[in-house]
Amino acid sequence: MKTLSSPSFTIPKLGIIAAPGWIDPTAREFSSLCNQSIDIAQTIMPPVGFDYSFEQIEQVEPHIETAAQLLKEAGSDLIIQVGPAFAYFNDYTAAGARSLQQRLTDACGCKVILNGVAVLDAIQDLACKRVILACPYYDEQWKSRFLTFLQSVDLVIEGCQTFTEQGLFASQQEVNARHYHFSEKEIKQSIRLARASAPNAEMVIVGGAGLRFLNIIEGLEQEFGVPVVSADVALHWATAKALNIEIRDKHLGRLLRTTKPS
């Protein structure tokens, strides 16, 4: 009796470079989105004692490359990096961010996706020009540099708001003390205030991967009538596309509804 062979299926191997100094939920979130098995390895970008100064961020390329090489040696088919500022503030231009991503891909011998480039690709895919920016936990210097970066992108920016400017927190020290732990209520309140300040905006762009949007993006988009681009959802979208994985839950925002296997 002839035995029928089972269809071959290779489990994708994803490597994740987490930002220093926090427990990154990207692996857990992406696993929950997939309708198939996926192997995930994660490492934290060095060096020890990373202080998030602009000087360190601007010199981060060899540290990302080291982390990516470790994940490649572990067998990763795709490597993603969490935290868009590491691409935004490397050269402060979209072209510079894309160039950094290509250098890392070439150095590792497999595709590397930078969080900041995933955001750029999401903006391009949604094809909206008039935008309102929300960078809730950024301080004035981070906000200024975020704006400098986005000036290299073909957008009409109607404004940019932070938690403190919106009066949701009394001081930046109070924001920093949260260490990226904000409730969904606080996040939604900030994004709603930003949207209300720019009723003609065609899209809301949110800065920073420390705010997580999977559970709230669909409701906000329905409420606003325009797409929301957040760093976390943009990275999940780019990862699913690169791995040819369909996200079957169609209630996670406009971007994730577009993932379909080729």
From TrEMBL:
Pfam families: Amdase. It comes from the Bacteria. This is Arylmalonate decarboxylase. It comes from Brumicola pallidula DSM 14239 = ACAM 615.
